[in-house]
Design a protein that fits this description.
about 300 residues; alpha/beta; Rossmann fold; about 20% strand
Length: about 300
């Protein structure tokens, strides 16, 4: 299904919080694993005092040795999988994106900061750059205080938000493959709302029958999900449920994820090139920044 799984690690507990999910997926999918560490020479040079600058080469060599030992220890926790350890020099984000560009069928799996309050908007510069820059499927796992780095996670279901567009639905073939391989239940979800502008005129009179409009939009949403459910069943998925909810899309997606144990969220984001490659859909952006569930981001083909 995937040609491999790339797991960037920097020695931090934050990055390691992805490992239980990576072990689960790699084991069930029988996917080869590549652990990647990146030595940022420019950053090392900036941290070295002028008096010690002449020892920079020695510091780099020592960093490579420590990284190799660290990745080897992590590799031993993936029993039964082919594990490759790679050490590259350069900027971490660029190196990770570059590895993905070399193999677009590879799944990337990364841990990112788990914070509360205003700081929930922060993902970490490396994860942010990879999220916006890669065209590979990307699994992001938020590193909350409760999250573990040891052992293996359990995944029983996948929540798939849809909005009626074919771009959003392009995630479904990958979801079907994962559901069939992992025995997952798929929950198709669509949130809908009515723009405030339709609730009344400037004189305060109702412009439309709001109840009828809500019912119509809700019916349309359910019909769309049922159509996509039938498509998934044709692809062999045994368990598919459909859920609609009136409300603001990102909020309802995050809320449903919190209520669903042992799940992850699978979403499709805009796939673009050049400067626009850095632009994600607003719903995807909000869910990625605020959800506490693992999120699989897929670019449309």
């Amino acid at each position: 299904m995937y040609t491999g799984m790339l797991i960037p690690l920097d020695g931090s507990k934050t990055a390691e919080k992805v490992l239980p999910y990576a072990r689960f997926l790699a084991g069930r999918l029988e996917t080869p694993v590549e652990l990647l560490a990146v030595i940022d020479i420019a950053e090392l040079a900036a941290q070295v005092s002028p008096e010690k600058a002449r020892f920079l080469d020695t510091i780099i060599i020592d960093g490579e040795r420590q990284s190799k030992e660290y990745l080897s220890r992590i590799a031993a926790t993936f029993p039964g999988n082919r594990v490759k350890c790679t050490i590259e020099k350069g900027r971490a984000g660029d190196a990770i994106i570059g590895r993905g560009d070399a193999d677009t069928g590879m799944l990337m799996a990364m841990g990112t900061h788990g914070r509360s309050g205003i700081n929930r908007w922060l993902l970490g510069s490396v994860a942010e750059k990879v999220l916006r820059g890669t065209t590979n499927p990307l699994l992001l796992v938020r590193a909350t205080d409760e999250a573990k780095s040891e052992g293996e996670a359990t995944l029983k279901s996948v929540v798939v938000p849809l909005d009626g567009s074919e771009i959003a639905a392009s995630v479904l073939p990958m979801v079907a493959g994962l559901a069939n391989k992992l025995g997952l239940e798929v929950e198709l979800f669509r949130a809908f709302n009515i723009p405030y502008s339709v609730y009344g005129t400037g004189d305060g009179y109702y412009a439309v029958n709001v109840d009828e409009l809500i019912a119509e939009v809700g019916n349309e949403a359910r019909e769309h999900l049922e159509k996509k459910s039938a498509e998934l069943k044709k692809l062999g998925v045994a368990k598919v449920t459909c859920t609609t909810k009136e409300g603001f899309g990102p909020d309802e997606i995050i809320s449903l994820g919190r209520k669903t144990p042992d799940n992850f969220i699978a979403m499709c984001s805009h796939g673009r090139s050049g400067v626009k490659r850095w632009v994600l859909g607003s719903v995807t952006e909000t869910v990625v920044r605020h959800s506490e569930d693992p999120i699989l981001i897929v670019r449309p083909g």
